Amino acid sequence: MKALELKFENEDGKIVTYSIENPIEPVDPAAVTAAMDVILAQNAFTSSGGDLVAKHSARVVERYSEDIELV
Prior knowledge:
- There is one protein chain.
- By secondary structure, the chain is α+β, with helices and mostly antiparallel strands.
- The chain has one domain (2-62).
- It is 18% helix and 44% strand.
- The protein has one helix at residues 29-41, and strands spanning 2-10, 15-21, 46-47, 50-62.
- It has a four-stranded antiparallel sheet, covered by helices on one side.
- Strand 1 (2-10) and strand 2 (15-21) form a beta hairpin.
- It is flat.
- Pfam families: DUF2922.
- It comes from Ornithinibacillus halotolerans.
């Protein structure tokens, strides 16, 4: 499973991550930047460390899991 992680800095200077599962690929950096700008401008999210104040980074992560059969 892939996820797009949007990372922001909050008022406490800590990094806050929001994940979006199954992003459209290839991911458009300009669209991601624009979406993050809208999130900041509309103060759409908050965190325990206060409002989001700046974009930090974005990345696509892929998670792989395999069940282990217990004997």
